[in-house]
Amino acid sequence: MGETLLSIQDLTVTYRARGEDIAAVRGVDLELARGEKLGIAGESGSGKSTLALALLRLLPATATVTGRVVLAGEDVVDMTWGRLRAVRWAGASIVFQGAMHSLNPVHTIGRQIAEPIVLHERIDESGAALRVAQLLEDVGMPAARASAYPHELSGGQRQRVMIAMALACRPDLIIADEPTTALDVMVQAQILGLIDDLVAGSGISLLMISHDLSVLSDVCDRLAIMYAGRVVEVGPARDVHHQAKHPYSAALSAAFPTIGDPSSRLRPHGLAGDPPDPESLPTGCAFHPRCPSRREQCDVIDPRLWSVGDRHDAACVLVLPDQGASLAGHVQQPTETKVAR
Ligand SMILES: Nc1ncnc2c1ncn2[C@@H]1O[C@H](COP(=O)(O)OP(=O)(O)OP(=O)(O)O)[C@@H](O)[C@H]1O
Fold it and tell me: CA 147, CA 111: separation in Å to the nearest integer?
């Protein structure tokens, strides 16, 4: 692995709502190297977006965060607001789903792309305009479109503008949260191809979130699978997609077609039930009530990630070397190290 750019350590996010604590992210550890592309997959509600928002402290005030998010050597959780403003856009930027809601309808897209550049770099208007023109061309749009308003663009073009904004300050990391969800299939493929091309060889790291594992395994080097706020498996994209070690990753792989393999569309999902309510998680492994490979101890043991191959870990009693001995040592205990919003 190359130099580590992002290190997420024992990250926990709890929302307070309706007088209840909602455990959205529970003790997540992840590493991302410079230039690496990491995909995060999981069903709706598994905590993917909460994790992404926590990386740049974009969570609402009802969220409590513990743990560490070390980006290029600095802990984002501890950072002053002034330093955080500098890190947003220039250190890491986010492309959200549904660009229409993220763009300001009353400003031209040129002005919106220029905004972070002017904010972060001492650059005059004509310098910013040149950069905007180049960025638009980089994302496959004519530079003249800088004078267009968001409503004058198609969904795919608006998402291209979001990508141009994310690239504007040449960040180390781009976080893409379901960047193609609202788009039709052809445009989805174009946008994914564009992200792939722009990141390739640039040294920019990519953290891409999707509920669709086949999309992620097509674009990313590594995959992390989330379930009920935990990472249950992480490893090389091909291995996690095609030789999953955790029963949930295996079920998720079977649930989606492999791109270019029409026969895979026929495979059943194979999972009964829904993900658990984060306000009342099951005891032991949160997946055990739905798990087709469930063992007797799964309602008491909540396994930590365990190495199952080269940079490939899974959190399941099935992969532990000695299921009989010291299983208690594998129970995850959330630690409260730092608190921030
Ligand atoms: N602002 C909030 N207040 C309270 N609960 C929240 C808030 N945002 C998210 N949650 C809850 O936190 C859990 C994780 O949600 P999150 O949106 O991170 O999951 P996700 O995997 O990104 O889902 P999706 O794919 O649907 O976006 C869910 O149970 C969700 O209802």
Answer: 8
Phi, psi for residue 146 in degrees, rounded to 5: -55, -30
Q: pTM for the full model?
A: 0.88
Q: Which two tokens stand for residue 81?
A: 């607001």
Residue 63: which of 72, 55, 75 has the closest Cα? 55
Could you give the CA distance from residue 311 to residue 27 in angstroms, rounded to a whole number?
A: 19
What is the DSSP annotation of 24-70?
Answer: EEEEEEEEEETT-EEEEE--TTSSHHHHHHHHTT---TTEEEEEEEE
Q: Is residue 268 exposed (0-12), middle (13-18) or buried (19+ Cβ within 10 Å)?
A: exposed
| Protein fold of 4-91+169-324 | Rossmann fold (3.40.50)
Cα 292 to ligand 1 centre (Å): 26
Give the binding-site residues of ligand 1, using a 6 Å CB cut-off: 15, 17, 22, 24, 42, 44-50, 60, 62, 211, 278
Residue 26 has pLDDT above 90, yes or no: yes
DSSP state of 132: H
Over the stretch 164-183, which tens digit does the pLDDT of each residue have?
A: 999 888 899 999 998 887 77
**How far is ligand 1, taken at its centre, from the CA of residue 329, in Å?**
30
